[in-house]
Structures are given as structure tokens and as C-alpha cells.
Amino acid sequence: MKYNARLRRLIEKHEGRVAHAYTDSLGYLTIGIGHLVDQRKGGSLPDEIINAIFDYDLNQVEAAMPDWMQKLDEVRKAVLTDMFFNLGPEPFDGDGYKDWPIFIKQIKEGKYAEAATNMRATLWAKQVKGRALRLAEMMESGEWPSDV
């Protein structure tokens, strides 16, 4: 076995492999195989790792989207993908957002202004504020914002 492979196995044996954030023996937030992320101690994630995690998460979300969403124009598809990314799998089922049946019906019927109004009136909109307003505008207009 080559030096690099043995070194990696040795360090992993000592550090462990943890698939979630944890507090190390000194009380600092750490992830993976001893990667310090606690900014109090100068830890962080490099952009390459942030991008890799984001790519993975976005691929998971897009793979879970039902077929009917794939047929939407790219802006409205992006709105729903962004919402799913934000809301996670809880309100989602195989045919759409199970907690939002009227919203889904409006989109399927092409009633995008009504869907946008519906979006603005939700608890989710109160929680995410500007994000919801931007996404509702995109749903209504079918256009990308100028700053995206």
C-alpha cells in the first residue's frame, strides 16, 4: 500500500469519519475527518467543498422533482426547485407539494399570477421574506430577476 493511502487511513482511524457537524475534544465545531469549521478557531469550508456540497444537494433535489415540473419553463421550474431546496422533503410528495395542493393545481393549470398570490400569503413567505417575494415575482412574470 502506498504512503498516501496508509497516511489517510491512519489519520482517519485517529480522527474518525463523521457525516455531521460535531464538537471536537476542545469544543470546536468539526466535520468529516477532523475538518475544523468553527470560525472561533479560524476554521471554515473552502469554496471547492461548499460548491461540491451544493452540487450534490441540487442534484438530489432535481432528481426528486416530478415529471410535470420538468415540463415547466425554466424560470418557473427554477422557482419550484428553489422552494424545494429551501423547504426540504417534508412538504413534498411524488406529485408536488402535498401541503400546497391549491398552489400546485394553479401551476398545473398555468394560473401563475394566482400561484404567486398564493405564495405571498403563506407562513413560508413570512419566514423567508424577500426570497418568497422574489420567487413569487418570478412565478408571476416568468422572467429571471436582473441580478441573477
Largest sheet: 3 strands, antiparallel
Q: Any idea how many domains?
A: 2
Number of helices: 8
Cα Rg: 21 Å
- CATH level 1 name of the largest domain: Mainly Alpha
What sequence of helices (H) and strands (E) makes up the elements?
HEEEHHHEEHHHH
Describe this structure in words.
The strands form two sheets. Strands 1-2-3 form a three-stranded antiparallel sheet, with no helix packed on it. By secondary structure, the chain is mainly α. Strand 4 (92-93) and strand 5 form a beta hairpin. The longest helix is centred in the middle third of the chain and has 18 residues, at 47-64. It has eight helices and five strands, in the order αβββαααββαααα. It folds into two domains: 3-41, no CATH class; 66-141, Lysozyme (Orthogonal Bundle), CATH 1.10.530.40. 57% of the residues lie in helices and 11% in strands.
Keywords:
148 residues; mainly alpha; Lysozyme; 2 domains; three-stranded antiparallel beta sheet; two-stranded antiparallel ribbon; 8 helices
Quick overview:
This protein has 148 residues and is mostly helical. Helix content is 57%, strand content 11%. The strands form 2 sheets. A 3-stranded antiparallel β-sheet has the order 1-2-3, with no helix packed on it.
How are the secondary structure elements laid out?
Layout: H1 3-15, E1 18-23, E2 29-32, E3 35-36, H2 47-64, H3 67-70, H4 74-87, E4 92-93, E5 96-97, H5 101-108, H6 112-120, H7 123-128, H8 130-141
Helix pairs in contact: 4-8, 5-6, 6-8
